[in-house]
Amino acid sequence: EAGVAQSPRYKIIEKRQSVAFWCNPISGHATLYWYQQILGQGPKLLIQFQNNGVVDDSQLPKDRFSAERLKGVDSTLKIQPAKLEDSAVYLCASSPGQLNQPQHFGDGTRLSIL
Amino acid sequence: DQQVKQNSPSLSVQEGRISILNCDYTNSMFDYFLWYKKYPAEGPTFLISISSIKDKNEDGRFTVFLNKSAKHLSLHIVPSQPGDSAVYFCAARYTGTASKLTFGTGTRLQVTL
To answer: Which residues of B touch A (CB under 8 A)?
Structure first.
């Protein structure tokens, strides 16, 4: 079974620029998550999709972050404009959607803001 | 407000001995707990979980214990192996929030020869 695919692996941009991350979940997984992991902290949920609908985006800074999951499969997360505090690893995860099914994570995108 | 806490940033254990990683939580509504393992430059990998209706779950060398009254869980690794060296994250979820996980800050385990 192929895992969660993310790209790019690394991205360096200057503050106020925009950036986008892409995620392809495990085939058949209905639920997709985007997490932000700042150095020294645990992953923090930004947004959760069930198929192509948003379940939880309460911790997404909506003034600069946006995400979509067209056709209920792939997803993109965008930051525009980026701030220094957005430097982090952005992790995508997916799960089948049933209760108590663990989430499977991709390897993440490490974003550095100069 | 850190609802899931891992108070030990790091732990060093000799190969063959027991590793015990601890996790405390404050939200009494949490009813499902997971441990994830993370190697550098990789995403977290699911290790083991436990429902609040149990107090112990075992999978090979890994055992998770849950003490609901103390709001405490621990992960035991016996025997510890060098390949277990990684960062371990405790995570919790509660019914009513779909499958949203709240993670601790992680404990870095180093297993020495």
So the answer is: 4, 32, 34, 36, 41-46, 49, 51, 89, 91, 97-101, 103-106
Rounded to a whole number of angstroms, the CA Rg of chain B reads: 13
Residue A56 identity (one-letter amino acid): D
Q: Is A2 helix (H, G, I), strand (E, B) or coil?
A: coil
| Test mutation, B99, B102, B105, chain A, max A CBs within 10 A | B99
pLDDT at residue A92 greater than cutoff 90: yes
What is the per-residue pLDDT across B52-77, written as a single tens digit (0 to 9) for each?
A: 999 999 999 999 999 999 999 999 99
Q: Distances in Å between the alpha carbon of B22 and those of A35, B60, B109? A: 23, 19, 12
Distance CA B13, CA B107 (A): 13
CB contact set of B55 (below 8 Å; sequence gap of 6+): B65, B66, B67, B68
| C-alpha distances out from residue B81 to A36, B12, B39, B84, Å | 30, 12, 14, 5
How many whole angstroms separate alpha carbon B42 and alpha carbon B26? 29
Within its chain, how far is the Cα of B86 from the centroid? 12
Structure letter (DSSP) for residue A23: E
Is the model's pLDDT at B98 over the cut of 80? no
Q: Report the amino acid identity of residue B17.
A: R
| Structure token pair of residue A50 | 């069930």
